[in-house]
Specification:
Helix content: 40-55%
Order of helices and strands: EEHHHHEE
Mean pLDDT: 94
Number of strands: 4
Number of domains: 1
Number of helices: 4
Shape: globular
Strand content: 15-25%
């Protein structure tokens, strides 16, 4: 799965950009283990987790290393998948057939969109 992450600075300008290719099947396997817990916590909690992990991405970009950044992006993607799949009923096929795009403002607000796979990534 292609994940594009863009972090903006305080002026709203691009500060950091990373493209990752993550194993979505592994991610949904881990998510299944956490589904009951997130369902009990509720949709507001799940949505808040996305911003919390967005803030972790910012910290990792500014103060961490590559491993910290990768972990924070993966956690943000996991939180997004949990919200989408558990509460919004987005299918795994929808995720498999789209790229995930994240834009994170300097205050940790996360904008997430799904875009059609580019021709190079659909093979």
């Amino acid at each position: 799965m292609k994940v594009v992450t863009l972090v903006l600075n305080a002026a709203g300008e691009p500060h950091f950009r990373q493209i990752d290719y993550l194993n979505f099947e592994a991610l949904i396997g881990i998510a299944k283990e956490r589904e009951a817990s997130i369902r009990n916590e509720g949709a507001d909690f799940a949505a808040g987790a996305i911003s919390a992990f967005g803030s972790e991405v910012i910290k990792a970009v500014n103060y961490g290393n590559e491993k910290d950044i990768d972990r924070a992006i993966t956690n943000m993607l996991m939180a997004t998948w949990m919200l989408d799949s558990v509460f919004l009923k987005v299918s795994a096929d929808t995720y498999r057939n789209t790229e995930q795009h994240f834009i994170i403002s300097d205050d940790g607000i996360v904008q997430h969109t799904r875009a059609p796979l580019s021709e190079n990534d659909s093979n």
